[in-house]
Amino acid sequence: HMGMCTTPKVQNHRKVEEMAYLYIHHHMSTDDIGLAYGIRGSTVAIYLREQGIEIRTNTLQLDENNIKNLRAKGYGVAKIAQIMGCSASAVRKRLAMKKYISP
Question: Environment class of residue 8 by beta-carbon count within 10 Å: exposed (0-12), middle (13-18) or buried (19+)?
């Protein structure tokens, strides 16, 4: 698709702006945004790249010890995500990998 815009014409520009807002300001993952809009996360990534937004890597460098300690103090996944500045799914994934919670 040599430099052509891959965003379908039916794709509402406002929706792409919403996706960008969720991605940048709410630290939502492309997969989470895709789920909300009924499209694939990879499609969301394409839309965002076309807006000039750099896509974060999946290997978000999160302090897993900090996540574990916050969890041990009784914080919920959403609160930990807010403290860490990442998505709840990123926290859940780290906790599940370390077997602190079931996925």
Answer: exposed
